[in-house]
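User: Hey, quick favor. My workstation is busy. Could you predict this chain's structure for me?
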Amino acid sequence: MDDSPALVAHQFDDAAQQHESSMLGMWVFLATEIMFFGGLFLGYTVYRTAHPLAFEAASRHLDIVLGSLNTAVLLTSSLTMALAVRCAQMGQRRGTASLLIVTLLLGSAFLGIKGFEYYQKYVDHLVPGASFAFPPPYTRDAQMFFYLYFAMTGLHAVHMIAGLGVVGVMTVKAWRGRYSPAYYSPVEITGLYWHFVDIVWIFLFPLLYLIGHHT
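Assistant: No problem, here it is.
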């Protein structure tokens, strides 16, 4: 199975060329994603620079414990994803599938915690809109902070959901012995995407959760 020519698409000369092309394609895709998130980060920077005290006050209404827990969960999922790629490279079917399952569980836990955070904001009337309630004098500017909070973390959550779907497919294929030392590119590419999503959160966490806790 390791050397089966069926694993190499007809447009490639060999498996090495196919692997290099797929990796390049993923890096190009991630570059577009960086530009996508970059617009939100730019907007955040502009508004935070204009209203620093309001953003700090609003940040104090985020649950730093849950944010820190989610950071730990996501970093752990990056580790299990990296180990899954390594197992795929070594042809360890059970190890690959098991680590991908753990990654799925950790990613799902992240989304569950984030969903609970969203519920908290709803109960506290911190969802931007007609029912938004925040103590003066920063009511209006705090609403912009929460607009950005929901937009940035929501977009990140959408990417997480997409990543979980792909990891789920990889898990099934890994369990069926689809990957080997000669063919593991799909797992590696999925790992790149997963790490990118984790890195985005590493930027979101301090920008959203820590600016009101620096003293």
